[in-house]
Amino acid sequence: MASGKDLPVSPLALPLPELPPVPGVLLGTGVAGIRYKAREDVTMMAFPAGTTVAGVFTKNQCPGAPVDWCRAALKGGKARALVVTAGNSNVFTGKAGRETCKATAAAMAKLAGCKPNEVFLASTGVIGEKLPTEKLTAALPAVHAVLEPDPWQHAARAIMTTDTFPKGATRTAKIGDATVTVNGIAKGSGMIAPDMATMLCFLATDAKVPAGALQAILKKGVDRSFNCVTVDSDTSTSDTVLLFATGATKHPRVPAEGGAMLKDFARAVHEVLMDLALLVARDGEGAQKLIEIHVAGAVSAKSAHRVAMSIANSPLVKTAIAGEDANWGRIVMAVGKSGEKADRDRLSVGVGGTWMAREGEIVPGYDEAPVVAHMKGREVRIDVDLGLGRGSATVWTCDLTHGYIDINGAYRS
Amino acid sequence: MASGKDLPVSPLALPLPELPPVPGVLLGTGVAGIRYKAREDVTMMAFPAGTTVAGVFTKNQCPGAPVDWCRAALKGGKARALVVTAGNSNVFTGKAGRETCKATAAAMAKLAGCKPNEVFLASTGVIGEKLPTEKLTAALPAVHAVLEPDPWQHAARAIMTTDTFPKGATRTAKIGDATVTVNGIAKGSGMIAPDMATMLCFLATDAKVPAGALQAILKKGVDRSFNCVTVDSDTSTSDTVLLFATGATKHPRVPAEGGAMLKDFARAVHEVLMDLALLVARDGEGAQKLIEIHVAGAVSAKSAHRVAMSIANSPLVKTAIAGEDANWGRIVMAVGKSGEKADRDRLSVGVGGTWMAREGEIVPGYDEAPVVAHMKGREVRIDVDLGLGRGSATVWTCDLTHGYIDINGAYRS
């Protein structure tokens, strides 16, 4: 993280799409001056009574105080407000960190007219520095006073820390005859690895979905998206994905267990999550290339996923790709180091659709030209066939460049 | 690996010590022209009849053909010769790779007057290219003709690939009243992680030790040394440690199970292994700082080791240290991502002997000056106390710098 210094926008950036209002959701952003000067660092969302919520959090054993807060609040299944701060993660801040969460939720609950455990909190930024609680609580009334349905684009920017571009996605879905919207925004570009592959991600919809069904859809979607993305293998202490469902749009009643009626809605949620996860990989610290790794022929899908992640996290593979070198020997090494079942003499490796090695040997006289051309592009595809079974998996990462060292060797200084 | 291009010598390099002759061992080096031009790339050792051997190899599931060869040969427990080549690893070379091993061992056995399975082989360098067998076998007679007891220093250089300095260590030990010597040479600077933390390492002694006792001593020593060193988390397909015992020096007979009589000998072997492992970390690709990580208070030694390796392999920790930033928040993150038992609120983190965080919170008003001074040095020490139990472990790594990207982004090109 670069202390708010301006970084050049990632060459893999995509433009922020138009994010329409989501019926029931009001947003606002403001300046609390927590760490950054002269930029918005507080983002607020408010939801109507009856809003349900689902959440998935980091598996890091040393999570931030806001993660603990959300985990506890999630048990109620209801949400009325979200407060996000940028610049200080409120991680490893001991009792003071817990007090900050309590005070922030109390102040927000008073403004929103709800219970503190209907307020959700998320913070990212520096670890181990006390978050100046009063600056934050003092900033809330002004933000609350200007809440509106529109400023999704603003919110996508206000939650950024080292991100070089704002990240958003939107879809519509049918529930019965009604059309509902799913919006999402995310931040994150380093310290990104399952679980989870982002720092913060917030989705909201106007569908009316019971909390249990909402949680199942979110969990499945995160497993297929964020948990298939890695930037540097490091797992944030703050990773948080929350999905709020306001129920502001009328549609046939969804049963507690969800079921077939939510099929199209689940697709929309999963597409938004996938869009956002890939945007995070595209903004990987120092990233010059987006890498898609497809592993087939594994003994199981789980095994394929582990092999793919071993390749995606290999510094030697990632530096080779940065150097535009289709060094398939390093891919073989990364397959072998995963510890998963593999047979060197059945292994095949391809880059950009050209098989360079087949069943344990180099393919004699394979055409290097398309491989060389592929490696020069912004998107690199690696295929591995283990030749053992039917398990497959796809994961995404980015290359490891001088930019990563520049960004991460200078933080705090 | 930098294709034999000259890299600046690591600032952490130590001078190669005088390596005395080891009674019974003859060495030679020569030029086969396997990949490099105008440098020695073949190293040979010859041992007298009765020499025993022990070996430890990579756990990578896709090992090179020479590793397979050595594993099989090791079953005999006897050795008469070693042939090491630099520039081509003979990994992922299919049937051709196995034929190369067979032909090399046959040619060497003929020269040494022994069986092929008394010949040990090791190769490092590029993966997936066929090793030109005839160039290698053609070079062997000339090397064999000039074998001498002295050229340990030469051998330490001839086995290098991307190493920026040669690595050797020596000790003496008492077995009864006799003094024996243990010499070791190693190569390796990238693709270094347990198990093992080197690419190639060869030890020889004039002690007479049964193969089983020799294997136990080597295994224990490797676990405490090479398996506690990581450069980039990537695990070589060629990692090999071999220990040859010629028995050329008379001493009381060692029983098959080894035992107390070998205590001092085991110490000497372990010290040589530890010296060499740290030299490998000091030559980590792009390394500017040697990092020692000590974890205490874990629920077990194994758990402590895993936490320490999680810190040692974290790109964010390693880049922070490259930037001379004592970013203990990233250390907390790396503890948490290990998945090992940890309690954020009992965790303490120190750098260079100064505790910066104690029991889950920053130490108020800790003196930053000695920490800042420590971070500017060549050797950085990190202490973590998990506050849970009595398990402890120490591991070593190096920082992650622009040099690593330079070296690994340009290989093969």
Automatic annotation (TrEMBL), chains A, B:
Catalytic activity as recorded in UniProt: N(2)-acetyl-L-ornithine + L-glutamate = N-acetyl-L-glutamate + L-ornithine; L-glutamate + acetyl-CoA = N-acetyl-L-glutamate + CoA + H(+)
GO terms for MF: L-glutamate N-acetyltransferase activity; L-glutamate N-acetyltransferase activity, acting on acetyl-L-ornithine as donor
EC number: 2.3.1.35, 2.3.1.1
Pfam families in alphabetical order: ArgJ
Pathway: Amino-acid biosynthesis; L-arginine biosynthesis; N(2)-acetyl-L-ornithine from L-glutamate: step 1/4; Amino-acid biosynthesis; L-arginine biosynthesis; L-ornithine and N-acetyl-L-glutamate from L-glutamate and N(2)-acetyl-L-ornithine (cyclic): step 1/1
Any one of the GO BP annotations: L-arginine biosynthetic process
Residue positions of the active site: 198
Keyword Amino-acid biosynthesis: yes
Site (Cleavage): 197-198
Binding, substrate: 161, 187, 198, 285, 408, 413
Alphabetic keyword roster: Acyltransferase, Amino-acid biosynthesis, Arginine biosynthesis, Autocatalytic cleavage, Cytoplasm, Multifunctional enzyme, Transferase
SUPFAM superfamilies: DmpA/ArgJ-like
Site, as annotated: Involved in the stabilization of negative charge on the oxyanion by the formation of the oxyanion hole: 124-125
Top-level taxon of origin: Bacteria
GO CC term (a single one): cytoplasm
InterPro entries: Arg_biosynth_ArgJ, ArgJ-like_dom_sf, ArgJ_beta_C
Keyword Ribonucleoprotein (UniProt): no
Compartment(s) where it occurs, according to its Swiss-Prot or TrEMBL record: Cytoplasm
Family (UniProt): Belongs to the ArgJ family.
Subunit note: Heterotetramer of two alpha and two beta chains.
Function: Catalyzes two activities which are involved in the cyclic version of arginine biosynthesis: the synthesis of N-acetylglutamate from glutamate and acetyl-CoA as the acetyl donor, and of ornithine by transacetylation between N(2)-acetylornithine and glutamate.
Protein name per UniProt: Arginine biosynthesis bifunctional protein ArgJ
Protein species of origin: Falsiroseomonas bella
Higher taxonomy: Bacteria, Pseudomonadati, Pseudomonadota, Alphaproteobacteria, Acetobacterales
Protein's gene: argJ
